[in-house]
Amino acid sequence: MSLVKLATSALALSVLAATAAAARDQVQIAGSSTVLPYASIVAEAFGDNFDFPTPVVESGGSSSGLKRFCEGVGENTIDIANASRSIREKEIKACAEAGVTDIIEVRIGYDGIVFASPIDGPAYTAFQPADIFNALGSKVLVDGAIVDNPHSQWADFNGDLPAADILAFIPGTKHGTREVFEDKVLLKGCEVTGAMEAMMAAGLSEDDAEDTCIDVRQDGKSVDIDGDYTETLARIDANPNGIGIFGLAFFENNQDKLKVATMGGVAPSTESISTGEYPVSRPLFFYIKTAHIGVIPGLKEFASFFVADEIAGPEGPLSAYGLVADPELTVTQAAVANETPLGSK
Amino acid sequence: MTETTTTPSASPPKKSSLFVLDERTRKRNAAETRFRMYGITAISVGLVFLVLLFTSILRSGIPAFTQTVVKIEFVLTKEQFDKAESKMLKTGEYQNIFVNALIGQLEARNLDVNVDSKSIKRIVGKPGGMIRSFFLENPDQIGTPVSFEIVASSRVDGYFNGRVTRDTLVDTRFLKASDLDLVDALQEADIIQGAFNWNFITGTDSGVDNPGGAGLGASVIGSFFMMLVVLFLSLPIGVAASIYLEEFAPKNLWTDLIEVNISNLAAVPSIVFGILGLAVFIQFAGLPQSAPVVGGLVLTLMTLPTIIISTRASLAAVPPSIRDAALGVGASKMQAVFHHVLPLAMPGILTGTIIGLAQALGETAPLLLIGMVGFVAREYPDGIASGFMDANSAMPAQIYTWASRADPGFYEKAWGGIIVLLLFLITMNAIAVILRRRFERRW
């Protein structure tokens, strides 16, 4: 019996090997989990509206997406990498070494990062970057001296905040969101509170001081979340004292469970983010391999469809879901139409 | 379970009676009673957790099997069709046509509520794709009245199944409290109603703004093709390897080393096989990304040690007298194994295989790395070859994807998907139990 099966399975394998050479006819995308929802909306609409097959959009994070993007040119590599940050010099170099040159950068819009807490939890309604830094930094300035963070309650350093235990769920280091949080909140708070100046006065170089500023405390009051926002939501559901960091779209989809805090006195909304008033926001991108245009059917059509006014514009489905539309969308549309590669502006 | 007796037997001390328990016997009996209590407590705690788990799965997952539909009949004219097809976002135009048709019918019925296109758009989900594909497939229906059942938006659905209530609803651009009045009026007019969600079982994945359109069907097919690969590779390879190791291989350092390593392989975390799959099958061998065949190959590697270990155990359980008898009447070693030992070991082998398959069916981690997690299971395969080679997801990967999406409607779908996956696993395990009960022989 097993001999017969062995023979059939060997046959099956050879059939598979023969079909493996068949050309890929759908666009392959991978990367940031922040861009994934938008990409999936566009991919579904693309499949519904065009005769091309629906593109495949994988998750995994900006860095791993760009890494796979830079593996080389060919059908076994992805065509588009989604990223919640712009591509780094190092990555462009890695790409070039693998033969991936002429990358088109497409900015699809902006995403806000919000601080939210359970709707019936303590009244965290207004934060300043300094508050977040004082609560979560590993070393803070107390009475003119840099010390290990002694604060256990929000009211310890700011009487306007509730006297509740500090507990924050922040994105883990593999998330692009973490970088924005570090740059625009922790570092800002570090500078505002004077902690950075004090660190440099104590003999740290500027780079070292910045590194210390963005270092979060390790005593369990700040928890890294490596999963998605749903995990953050589940964690603050279980810890009503906690605050969590979410994307604007996620918060808007769960407003019956969450309340949002202002940052620097500005409430996050599509308007305040598009004007740049709300401080914690970042652009979202995707990157296209020019070498795959014309080889993979529908690739260029998909990219143009993604940035079309009907999709990424202020009235389109992406805005309806929570993306902050890019005011300079026409520039992006032209760049896609002309296949303008990165670095030639 | 072995028989235990509670009454002490054997020789009593000289001065005591058989009918009066002495101190030591009482202590022993008390210890035994305590042990039984511990056992019962342990089982009850386990049962409580099981019941909790099942009730929470069922409570969260059942709503995924129902949906709220807006039922209306309307006519699409040839001009409307041509105009919509000439646009870039055709589905958006179909949605507008549908919304306008619905508003027209509501006004004709003179309902006592405000009807405006924005609130209608918030109530209906994303009907454009469905309407377009219907008319593309049935062009002869253009110009005639067609009855449609359009899935309502996820929050209206939540209102019907109790997830969204008037107290918890916060006015957002997704749904406003005033829309609920319109929903109530529509329900009274029998335009909006609950229905069984067949699409959840047969449909494909949908974009994050369209939870009503999401279904598990395509990923079930993906899982099926993966299981085919696993079955047809791991069963013959596993059985052949175990027969050789158990019956023919000399006992030396090499075979010992192989045995130890098979046991080690069984304990390797599954994500490691995913990394291996990415490096070997996709980057080196050039197989396509996100394809069930790669998923199947990776899961085969993961299942092989399980099958080898269980097969060897069932071969070893066949008494040596069977082999000796076969050899004694002149059978060759191979005849003894294939005519006598293997048939007797078959029930155990099948059980081990099914349990290995069930384990592989529920595995997500290795699939993360070979591109089967994300917005993948959008299209059904066209045929057998495409089923193996075209991008698809698998049930656990689909559940994982849904659970990470922002809309609470998808969270519900994830729980519903867990129910379906559990049904598959329970069925497979039940088959394994039945096979074992029917064919197992004891000596």
Describe the fold and architecture.
The complex is a heterodimer of chains A (345) and B (443). Chain A is α/β, with parallel strands linked by helices. Chain A has 2 domains: 23-111 and 283-338, 3-Layer(aba) Sandwich (D-Maltodextrin-Binding Protein, domain 2), CATH 3.40.190; 112-281, Periplasmic binding protein-like II (D-Maltodextrin-Binding Protein, domain 2), CATH 3.40.190.10. In chain A, 40% of the residues lie in helices and 19% in strands. The model of chain A has no long low-confidence stretch (mean pLDDT 86). Chain B folds into 2 domains: 66-196, no CATH class; 217-439, Orthogonal Bundle (MetI-like fold). In chain B, 65% of the residues lie in helices and 5% in strands. Chain B has 18 helices and 4 strands. Chain B has a 3-stranded antiparallel beta sheet. Chain B is extended, with a radius of gyration of 31 Å. The model of chain B has no long low-confidence stretch (mean pLDDT 88). Classes of the chains: A alpha/beta (345), B mainly alpha (443). β2 of chain A pairs antiparallel with β4 (374-375) of chain B.
What is the structure about, briefly put?
The complex is a heterodimer of chains A (345) and B (443). Chain A is 40% helix and 19% strand.
What brief labels describe this structure?
heterodimer, A: 345 residues, alpha/beta, D-Maltodextrin-Binding Protein, domain 2, two-stranded antiparallel ribbon, 40% helix, B: 2 domains, 18 helices, 65% helix, 5% strand, extended
Corresponding CATH superfamily of the largest domain in chain B: MetI-like
- Radius of gyration of chain B (Å): 31 Å
The run of helices and strands of chain A is HEHEHEHEEHEEEHHHEHEHEHEHHHEH
The helix fraction of chain B, in percent, is 55-70%
What is the first-to-last residue Cα distance of chain A? 67 Å
Topology:
The complex is a heterodimer of chains A (345) and B (443).
Chain A: H1 2-19, E1 28-31, H2 36-49, E2 56-58, H3 62-69, E3 80-83, H4 89-97, E4 103-118, E5 126-127, H5 129-136, E6 139-142, E7 145-148, E8 168-171, H6 176-193, H7 195-201, H8 206-213, E9 222-225, H9 229-238, E10 243-247, H10 248-253, E11 258-263, H11 270-274, E12 281-289, H12 299-307, H13 309-312, H14 317-321, E13 324-325, H15 329-338
Parallel strand pairs in A: 1-2, 1-3, 5-11, 8-9, 8-10
Antiparallel strand pairs in A: 3-12, 4-10, 4-11, 4-12, 4-13, 6-7
Chain B: H1 23-61, E1 66-75, H2 78-86, H3 90-109, H4 117-123, H5 128-137, E2 145-151, H6 154-161, H7 177-188, E3 192-196, H8 198-202, H9 217-248, H10 253-266, H11 270-284, H12 292-316, H13 320-328, H14 333-361, H15 365-369, E4 374-375, H16 384-389, H17 395-403, H18 408-439
